[in-house]
Amino acid sequence: MPVVEANDLRRVYKTHTGTIRRRVKEIEAVRGVSFAIEKGELFGLLGPNGAGKTTTIKMLITLLIPTAGSANVLGYDVVKDPREVRKRIGYVFGGERGVYERLSGYDNLRYFAELYGVPPKTQKQRIDELLDLVGLKGREHERTEGYSRGMKQRLHVARGLLHDPEVVFLDEPTIGLDPVGARELRATIGTLTQAGKTILLTTHYMFEADALCDRIAVISQGQIVAEGTPEQLKSRVASGAVTEVEVYGIPDETVERLRTLEGVMSVWVEEREQAQVLSVQTRADVQLTAAILGHLNGSNVGRVSHREPTLEDAYVALVKDE
Amino acid sequence: MRVLRLLAIGWKFHFKMIMRSAFDGVGQVIYPLFFATVAFFVFRAGDSPRTLLYASLGAAVMGMWSATSTTAGSAMQRERWQGTLEALVATPANFALILLPVTIAMATIGIYSLVATLLWGRLLFGIQLTVVHPVMFVLSIPATVLTFGALGFLFAVCFVRFRAAWALGNMFEYPVWLICGFLVPLTFFPGWVRPISWILAPTWGMNAIRESSLGGSPLPDLLMCFALGTAYIALGFLVMDRLLRAARERAALSLT
Description:
heterodimer, A: alpha/beta, 2 domains, six-stranded mixed beta sheet, four-stranded antiparallel beta sheet
């Protein structure tokens, strides 16, 4: 039986517009997400900002009630048995928020140890072990307001593990960290999988998902657009070539026309400072540079380059094609 | 045992946090003295030591109430701003048991208000505190603190679901001074005000403190104060799950 199971999860947010004539606007953040995570697996939910990753994770950890669909963790329904689910899971936030800044890291951990029902006799030992694990030993009695972003993130990890949960949900744990801090945190996540934890990790870094996850689901605009092992996802871009063109003000119709060219696998546009970068992934046996430039008549064109496709391309193509 | 421990550790944690805020601290130091000074000047015209002590005790409880009413709402708001509200809800502990010590910790700060006001009155206006029933007086103070905390808890339960409701905490601050008889006796008010006063525990807490100090029978007031405090807590526990579920349905937990 899967440890975490999501079946056609949906979540609609309602917002209001207007002051006197208020109108309700509905935003469908998650549109039928289904997946299953087996025991001991590290499953990645990969997607850009606003794709529905955090909403999905919040439904699984019982902070949000799904609008439709169902989910269970270790056999407990996230809507009907939230307390049973909470006892067995750990949740690690991304970012700096979520700690009591006026108090020390130790105070924070001690308080949450109590809330998670860690037996009083073992609390001190457990906190010491976790401080060692996340590398905060020696700094635990300082107020957290003086902690760096990375230290706060590691404190989140320690808090999520206080009650030694079977399942750990990590919501963009490396967001905003410097490369060294992110690498250290990824190493910590690695040790959790070795300890047999089942982990759901959300991230928007393809390389992070690739380095850590056993399986990845790519989510875009509230739907899962691809799922498989990192190798399976990589194989989607193992062939072909990518032509990159710097453009200034490319119309949407041009992008659509490029997609219809024979030999084109995917097209996406990224904003980079003042310019845009048009990326066209093509089959290896076709040479389409002239045709692409021909379609860009009327737009200001800058540097043109060719390169081998990368993992990042697979991800970008998946989320941009949606 | 586990519940008591959870309450005690929660209280200690939040009390420690409040004590570390310099800005909150300044307000807590100055406000009671301000209330006391105003009350003393107003009631000095009566030129009766008993009236002045009456006002002094009223001003003291005003400070206690202000420390609780305005901070219960802002406490929830602070949990939202710092992103800890979701972290608390995500734990398996009963959320009402998490919330209750937060407001009781705030009400505890009110004890300072009481002491500071009485000292201020003694030093500046020469008002001597006479206590007719010392045991009842000593019991009345923690009972009032706890029931203030319980009422703050009931407010805070609503603030979890209705995030803008924290403004209500501020709105309740001044009317309670009047309708609970902190400054003037309830007999001065129209009859329709009294039922409102009776369902508010501060009325009974105030009476218990005054009657134990000035003479009278504080026990019924103390029991009523305790009963209402218990009722607030019971009501809070009763509606907590429903409001929390509504907050999860409406995604209100992460909103600031």
